[in-house]
């Protein structure tokens, strides 16, 4: 079906940040006495807001992360972004087609506004996302798998949830989209389709997405 709004996740969908940030997260948690592998980080935290990291660590260990955890983690991630981050291959072609077809789009990310801005500036995607179509879990207080962020984005963009489609690559993101009453397509570049149940369709690369949005 033709949708009135395409909502993109950011990390792993627009910018190839998941390998970078999860290596850093696993290393930092291990450094703090919470042994975490890269695979653990992907399984437990991919697609989630920072509060989920705090909540899971406290639930599992009874200990809180340091007060400066978010600041230190962001500093390490942003420094790595400046060195390494690139846009996901094919994203520009998808955005060009949406603009040509006059299809509204936005980004709705578990990451902070600062994280989104740093990544988009580094990869050149800031030309496509000017602020009015950028939404963060910071805006609603609860990250994915809660539907709040996607519902907020749809409301701000003036679109009914059932007329939206979400582009996601994490189980938490797919769950959030479904809970919001939206269709969702799952990018399987890093996460298999079996781990993204409930999506309307799956695709391996961004250029394949265009065939799903007609």
UniProtKB/TrEMBL annotation:
The keyword Hydrolase applies. Its EC number is 3.1.3.-. Keywords: Hydrolase, Magnesium, Metal-binding. CDD domains: HAD_BPGM_like (cd07526). Pfam families: Hydrolase. It is an enzyme of class 3 (hydrolase). Coiled coil: none annotated. InterPro entries: Beta-PGM-like, HAD-like_sf, HAD-SF_hydro_IA, HAD_sf, PGP-like_dom2. It comes from the Bacteria. Its cofactor is Mg(2+). Gene3D superfamilies: HAD superfamily/HAD-like, Putative phosphatase, domain 2. One of its GO terms (molecular function) is hydrolase activity. Belongs to the HAD-like hydrolase superfamily. CbbY/CbbZ/Gph/YieH family. This is HAD family hydrolase. It comes from Streptomyces chengmaiensis. The lineage of its organism: Bacteria, Bacillati, Actinomycetota, Actinomycetes, Kitasatosporales.
């Amino acid at each position: 079906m033709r949708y009135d709004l395409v909502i993109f996740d950011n990390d792993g969908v627009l910018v190839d940040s998941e390998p970078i940030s999860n290596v850093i997260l696993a290393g930092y948690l291990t450094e703090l006495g919470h042994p975490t592998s890269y695979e653990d980080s992907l399984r437990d935290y991919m697609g989630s807001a920072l509060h989920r990291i705090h909540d899971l660590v406290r639930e599992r260990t009874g200990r809180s992360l340091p007060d400066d955890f978010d600041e230190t983690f962001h500093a390490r991630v942003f420094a790595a972004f400046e060195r390494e981050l690139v846009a996901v291959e094919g994203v520009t072609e998808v955005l060009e087609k949406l603009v040509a077809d006059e299809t509204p789009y936005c980004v709705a990310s578990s990451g902070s506004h600062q994280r989104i801005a740093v990544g988009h500036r580094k990869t050149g995607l800031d030309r496509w996302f000017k602020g009015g179509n950028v939404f963060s879990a910071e805006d609603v207080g609860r990250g994915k798998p809660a539907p709040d962020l996607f519902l907020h984005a749809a409301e701000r963009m003036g679109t009914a949830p059932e007329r939206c489609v979400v582009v996601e690559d994490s189980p938490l993101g797919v769950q959030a989209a479904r809970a919001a009453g939206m269709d969702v397509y799952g990018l399987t570049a890093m996460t298999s389709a079996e781990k993204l149940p409930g999506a309307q369709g799956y695709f391996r690369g961004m250029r394949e997405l265009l065939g799903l949005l007609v």
